[in-house]
Amino acid sequence: MNDPTNGLSEQQLEVRRMARELAREHYAPLAARWDAERLPLPHEERRRLGDLGLLGITLPEEFGGSGAPVLDALVVIEELAKECRPAAFQVFECTTGPAAVVNLLGGDELRARCLPPVIRGDATMAVAISEPDAGSAATDMTTRAVRDGDSYRVSGSKRWISGGGHADQYLLYARLADVPGARGIGALVVDADTPGISYGAQEKLMGFRGIPSCDIHFDDVRVPAANLLVDAGRFRELFTGFSLERLGNATMSLALAQAAVDRTVDYVQTRTAFGKPLIEFQATQLTLADMVLQVEAARLLVYRAARGAGRGLPSPLEVSLAKCTANETAKRVTDLAIQLHGGNGYTEEYGIERLHRDAHGWALAGGTPTMQRTRIVSELLGRSFDQRR
After folding, report:
1. How much is the pTM?
2. Domain 126-233, what fold?
């Protein structure tokens, strides 16, 4: 199909071409095996991404990054994610995930210590928010960080951590003050090898294969006070930072939907039934048109939020609109792609079922479409809603 610029600059188009070539020539032949064997991205591949400058696209030049707008990173994430989600996830976590939040909210010393290894591909950082009894209701978290001299003592458990058990550091959300709800929550950076941290078994998920996930337990873990990112009382600022991660999430979903469209366009023009190509049937045309409509609508919302963010934080409303739309688009469009591929869509050979499995994962991660709908109304009306009453 046509490849519109969508208003991208020449530099962004060149970055996209480079990322597309890397994805198709290097990662596409490897992705199916990594999915089947549930293998995380090898360290040398992470360093490859670092050497190419892809892990520091949005991070400051003084630390080895490029200092580019977030849209530049999303362009790369989309191209990599069309072929290989584990590779795209590394760029996602560095440029729109916890490393980006540390850059936007952290002090100079913490940034100088954490960001250069991430940009080089020598270290990874994951975000730890959810708990066994606090998923969508994040403010129900009970993990505590109590100040004790020049350190914090952390106790509690975290769940659904993408990168869990493999990351070198965790951006840990915890209760830093003995007050209820959001007012008591802040965040610290915790080194993965700190005494008192233990890890559960790796999850065997429907999708997200190649992106590790496990429970993490903190048993009186001492974290230096210098690792504090955001103190209690700044939860709104912290979660506005998390909106950047949601924008990366929306781009992963966009990539899955676009990949499903691209593969379906090729398939329906070459596959025949009743003596003619599938594309000659009106039912195929209508289904394909719906797929393209949904993907293009999602792209416009993702790009609008990214352009609004520039080199800073995006509008939470625009991000929730983009994430909800892109998440649901990915699920619907990959499902329609399976239908248009018929029996072939249900096999692993064509890779469509893998797109569909991953689409459901990205819709769950970072706040479900249901939660995004409540966020949309909350941001629209400028008020919060207490779901507990």
Report:
1. 0.95
2. Butyryl-CoA Dehydrogenase, subunit A; domain 2 (2.40.110)
